[in-house]
Amino acid sequence: MLGSGLTYRGTASVTKSGSRCLPWDNPAITHKLNNAWRSDALKLGLGGHNFCRNPDGDVGPWCHVYKNMRLTWELCDVPKCSKPAILTTSGPRAPTNTNNKATCGQRLDNTLNHPVFRMFGGRESDITEQPWQAVINVFQRRHKQHFYRCGGVLIDSCWILTAAHCFEENEKVENLEVILGRTFRKMNSSSEQIFGVEKYWIHKKFESETFDNDIALLKLKTDIGICAVNSPEVYPVCLPERGLVLPDWTECEISGYGKTTEFSAEYSERVKRGHVRLWPNERCVPDVLSGRTVTSNMLCCGRHPRPG
């Protein structure tokens, strides 16, 4: 945040006391001066979200909250920047992760509230268990509708991380669609948020034969400066710190709408969630992996339990 945060358009939504901000379009604040119904709301950064803003020139970004059953307001816990960063690259600038628990990685664990359906490659789940999960669809003119292409994860309000192999050569950006907040891949939901794609970037060194550098970024399209709005069904995942190395046999969580088996013709209709472990290097060789090659840019995982 620079200065008093008049131009702050981040996603912090917790006050200095730890209270969760109310959305600017909450019916409880319709009588307040600063809300999403102001004629200049978009210019001030106000809308259907609960992100901290400074629309009235206060000492810093703030938001409406409930304290002791009373509607009030509080300043937000938004750190100040020492000076503007100088960009020296023409590539995409995805958000820098700070692992701020107020803005990433939060979810409602429904393990005890939903029946568990065991299946190969994971169990059927609910989107609130992995609210960062995204659906990436592609419009096919021949059929005049969107079809599922790949999954992805929300890493910031307007950014989706996915795989490079999901895109065909010269894929038209106007044909891409991203859906967040959906438990069932094809079924509309009151919690879903749908976006077009402004631009996408495939890793310059992606190898389609070996899948080395199989990573891509999508920037969601918006006219108001923010895209995805945090909710129990939509929330960004936390990114790892630069240089992080996880020990062998670390248990990792995976999610998506992937196929039930490797050679299945159909994708899962419902989002799934599973766990794998990171394998040591001696297991990640072609002799063990049926000729497949694992490079230093990949994670090598399996479902076998840790030995001993």
UniProtKB/TrEMBL annotation:
Coiled-coil regions listed: none
Domain Peptidase S1: 119-308
Any one GO molecular function term: serine-type endopeptidase activity
GO cellular component, one term: extracellular space
CDD domains: KR, Tryp_SPc
InterPro entries assigned: Kringle, Kringle-like, Kringle_CS, Kringle_sf, Peptidase_S1_PA, Peptidase_S1_PA_chymotrypsin, Peptidase_S1A, Serine_Proteases_S1
Catalytic activity: Specific cleavage of Arg-|-Val bond in plasminogen to form plasmin; Preferential cleavage: Arg-|-Xaa, Lys-|-Xaa
Entry's localization field: Secreted
Chief location: secreted
SMART domains from the UniProt entry: KR (SM00130), Tryp_SPc (SM00020)
One GO term of the biological process aspect: plasminogen activation
Kringle domain: residues covered: 1-81
UniProt keyword annotations, A-Z: Disulfide bond, Glycoprotein, Hydrolase, Kringle, Plasminogen activation, Protease, Secreted, Serine protease, Signal
Listed name of the protein: Uncharacterized protein
Organism: Takifugu bimaculatus
Taxonomic lineage of the native organism: Eukaryota, Metazoa, Chordata, Craniata, Vertebrata
